[in-house]
Design a protein that fits this description.
This protein is an alpha/beta fold. The chain is 18% helix and 30% strand. It has a single domain, classed as Ribonuclease Z/Hydroxyacylglutathione hydrolase-like (Metallo-beta-lactamase, Chain A, 4-Layer Sandwich), CATH 3.60.15. Helix 4 runs antiparallel to helix 5. The structure holds zinc ion (ZN).
Length: 228
């Protein structure tokens, strides 16, 4: 069951307790960031708020972000994550660094931040200091970094890239766990990822998933040594 909250003017947060999406309602169209799990039923939640045509942007291609795509027909997604969308009926449009989408007074600029997945992006509204970080900045996580479609070295580089923008960031809205969070979490996630890389965090086997659990000072990661 999705809860919808008007978080700022024209800007809704949809949340089913596992993952959240962001809906911006403009005058003649709406912009949806991410589509939840297949059983999140994001389309129904969007239609309770607006009947306008919806353009869909994806922060990345994991199943908890792409699950409702079939209901919307298509989306903008970074090409490096196209292979993660298995439904051939979904129309994919490329998304790349600098692509900007305007709606309802918001101007979301695409920032490529590979690592959590190779095609991960953030959306940044510089005027409002608003950063939609996908799964790449979180409090406290876990941030998933295990499996062949993820890369810790790239994740570290991407957190450095985001940290270089931190002066202009006021509010970060991640797709999981606590929100809103401040720009200091970019640095916290970066410092903990560096500790993970340098072998300073002790891993414990995850009871169910094929990975270890690593706890940094602020951030939890799911990772395996084989991924290094
Ligand atoms: Zn996710």
């Amino acid at each position: 069951m999705i809860t919808s909250t008007l978080f700022m003017e024209h800007f809704y947060i949809l949340d089913d307790g596992r993952v959240r999406q962001f809906l911006i309602v403009g005058e003649d169209q709406a912009l949806l960031i991410d589509t939840g799990f297949p059983d999140s039923h994001v389309y129904e939640a969007v239609r309770k708020i607006t009947a306008l045509p919806v353009r869909v942007l994806l922060t990345h291609g994991d199943i908890d972000h792409t699950g409702g795509l079939a209901d919307f027909g298509g989306c903008f997604l970074h090409k490096a994550d196209w292979k993660l969308v298995k439904d051939p009926a979904v129309h994919l449009e490329p998304l790349a660094e600098g692509d900007t989408f305007s709606c309802g007074g918001y101007h979301l600029k695409t920032i490529e931040i590979p690592g959590h997945t190779y095609g991960s992006v953030a959306f940044f509204d510089e005027e409002k200091g608003l950063l939609l970080s996908g799964d790449s900045v979180q409090k406290p996580g876990p941030i998933y970094l295990f499996g062949g479609w993820r890369n810790l070295d790239l994740y570290i580089e991407s957190e450095r890239k985001l940290w270089s923008l931190a002066d202009k960031v006021k509010t970060i809205l991640p797709c999981h766990h606590e929100y809103p969070i401040g720009p200091e979490y970019i640095r916290y996630n970066l410092e903990d990822a560096l500790s993970l890389k340098e072998g300073r965090l002790q891993g414990e086997r995850h009871p169910v998933m094929p990975c270890n659990v690593y706890k940094g000072s602020w951030t939890e990661f799911y990772y395996t040594e084989q991924d290094a």
